[in-house]
Prior knowledge:
Blueprint: E1 3-4, E2 8-11, H1 18-25, H2 40-57, E3 62-66, E4 72-80, H3 83-86, E5 95-101, H4 110-124, E6 129-135, H5 139-147, E7 151-152, E8 158-159, E9 171-178, H6 180-185
Antiparallel strand pairs: 1-2, 2-3, 3-4, 4-5, 6-9, 7-9, 8-9
Helix pairs in contact: 1-2
Amino acid sequence: MKLTTERLVLRPWEDKDRTPMARIYGDAHVRRFHPKVLTVEEANASIDLAIERARTDGFHFQAAELKGSGEFIGMIGLAVRSETVQAGLPGHRTVEIGWFLAKEHWGQGLAPEGARAWLDYAWSIGLPEVAAFTAKVNAPSQRVMEKIGMIYDPGSDYENPELCEGHWLRPQVVYWKRNPTFFERHSITVAP
Ligand SMILES: CC(C)(COP(=O)(O)OP(=O)(O)OC[C@H]1O[C@@H](n2cnc3c(N)ncnc32)[C@H](O)[C@@H]1OP(=O)(O)O)[C@@H](O)C(=O)NCCC(=O)NCCS
């Protein structure tokens, strides 16, 4: 899957992305709202999984690069939320949208720009809705969700069961965006 925006190319993973993506996943500041940084092996495994899941599901989190220079900046994409890892959590059978960019590229609206292209793709293949999940304290990620028109659903708040009670990263929030065309086509009226 290759998508382009004004400033970005969103494309399948290539081997050359592995080192810069491992650097991003291994950066303690980038992962300050996550329980831990990833090792190089874990970062590689996440790319391997993304490649495999793109084959089986048709899409998954992908590489993002700058259009002009081709510089790799991180990952943006859609993924079918993994049942094996996340069964029992809210929305575990939904499609989620996610992003992880190198900190040198933050603050330029690149994540929302890429995410909007992925939402257009989601609607183009007829998905009824897309969800986004993050730690309650991850304000930057929630700003991206707001910028792309996702709505916070307080009723879906949940606790990350992999963290102990009281852990500051345990509370999680969920945002949703519905495909307006889908709901119109099926004459379904929903609250905003
Ligand atoms: C979340 C993230 C993708 C945002 O990407 P981005 O391209 O910088 O998005 P934007 O430029 O639209 O900025 C979104 C918000 O990030 C915050 N932000 C921007 N630049 C920042 C910086 N240099 N340092 C800290 N926060 C910053 C601001 O709150 C901003 O909101 P604002 O535009 O209303 O001020 C990026 O911060 C990131 O990769 N974070 C780490 C990975 C992560 O947490 N991913 C989500 C996993 S659930």
